[in-house]
Amino acid sequence: MDLKLNRLPAIRLVLLLLLCGIALGSGKAEAQQAKPGADRAKVWIIPVQGDIGPSLTAFVRREARKALSQGAEYLVFEIDTFGGRVDSALQITSFIMSVKNAKTVAWVHNSEASMGVSWSAGALIALSCAEIYMAPGTSMGAAAPVTVGAGGTTEATGEKTVAAVRSQMAALAERNGHPTGIALAMVDLDVELWEVLVDGEPKALTLNDVERLEKDGASKVERLQIISAPGKLLSLTAGEALRYGLASGLAENREILLASLGVQGSVTEGKPGAADGLVSLLTSGPVQVILILLGLVMIFLEINTPGFGVPGVTAIIAFLLVFGSGALLGRVGSLEIILFIIGIALLAIEIFVTPGFGFMGISGIILIGLSLVFSMQDFVIPRFEWEWTLLGRNALVVFVGLIAAVCGIAAIALFGPKTKLFDRLMLKTAITATAGQDESPTSLNYETLIGKIGIASTTLRPSGFVEIDGEVFDADANGAFIDQGRGVKVTQVRGNRVIVRLV
């Protein structure tokens, strides 16, 4: 009995050790079992939705950089788009291809609020990702570049643009292991794509690749059907994309997507904010035209108004919005600012120094126009056809803005002095004394000045000052320009402002 009693503590110790071993072993087994998908990976979902343009490019770049800075291991680009601008899509694909510290995944999703498509530029972005997943009922393809014709209809671009996009699509597919033939058939109408069995495995290959394999004889090739005939662009459903190896899997929702990736962990979704919508609005063509018109007209009013007031502040705000929105999209640098400042300086010299309107003024307008055009694009000299198209579009926006501004300035010069609105912007106090003299306001009846002859003390553009009977008055040339020193005659009086014409 004593021996048994002495053995009890030892037995308890052994049992305790066994239980600890079992616990440690089970914990290790659970850790090993959870390791493939439970390293608590950080997943960042970045929506690529709506029209693909400069503002979306800036959003994708910003969100991706933010995700990478916070240690994201998976960047999931949630694609739902009919397409958009080629240059913006290429910028997004270049950025995605540059990501090294995270796995990039394209997911063409489907929901009540989505369209369930990844067409045109959307397909280009999807191919730039390492893996592609699609929700049932979605489609991808039709990536041929198009341009908007004169009547507002879409037209096919030239062979040079198609060739450039085709080579880029093929390069993206080749780099990420996607079927190259599918990428080519989505862009090029001349590509004939076949479904074939290569050693019993279904594949989508171009006719050239099929004939090469048949000629080589190393693999058993069996033609099944034409997927995309010449003259048609390829679009694939989710099931077809999975069958031909374009999609890595089908994922109806995010939970299934993460499970397919073998990922568990925190999920963060980036969403465009109000600032992104504002930048998109400010960089649109109509708004850019309005800002250019407003800025130039306000500069004209400021030049013709003594001191610095509302017109000058409005002009500064207008051009800050033009260049500021471009800067947020990474399209404005020192070149655009320098050209704009030099252009304004040349215009000022033309107005205040040189008589008439000649080389200085024209050069100033050209430099201002160039600075505005360059602020709308991220290149100076076009290299590709779509860059020439974009340059033409930007030049048209600036040209319309400049022409509208010229018309507005002409209307103000001709009819502004006759309206009370612009009359309020002009200096109302007449200069009635020179330096060192009494500056008290004159009690002169302005109506008595009608018909009197004087001289222009300053250049009237069309506002300025005239001297009549030894006194200086605020004057307006009624839309005309009168050089300093010319004789003038008062034709009418409006408040304390005299209206004059050349003698």
- Gyration radius, in Å: 36 Å
**Counted beta strands:** 19
User: Which parts are unreliable, with pLDDT below 50 for 5 consecutive residues or more?
Assistant: 1-39, 149-153, 427-442
Number of helices: 16
Percent range of helical residues: 40-55%
Oligomer: single chain
Order of strands across the biggest sheet? 13-5-3-2-1-14
Question: What structural class should be given to the helix and strand makeup?
Answer: alpha/beta
Note the main sheet. Answer: 6 strands, parallel
Strand content: 15-25%
pLDDT averaged residue by residue: 80
What global shape is seen? elongated
Query: What is the first-to-last residue Cα distance?
Result: 141 Å
Description:
By secondary structure, this protein is of the alpha/beta class. Helix content is 47%, strand content 19%.
Element layout with pairings:
Layout: H1 2-34, E1 43-49, H2 54-69, E2 74-80, H3 86-98, E3 103-108, E4 117-119, H4 121-127, E5 131-134, E6 139-141, E7 146-148, E8 154-156, H5 159-176, H6 180-187, E9 193-198, E10 201-206, H7 207-216, E11 221-228, E12 235-237, H8 238-243, E13 249-250, H9 254-261, E14 267-269, H10 274-282, H11 285-303, H12 310-328, H13 334-352, H14 359-374, H15 385-415, H16 420-425, E15 453-456, E16 463-468, E17 471-476, E18 487-494, E19 497-502
Helix pairs in contact: 2-3, 2-10, 3-4, 5-6, 11-12, 11-15, 13-14, 14-15
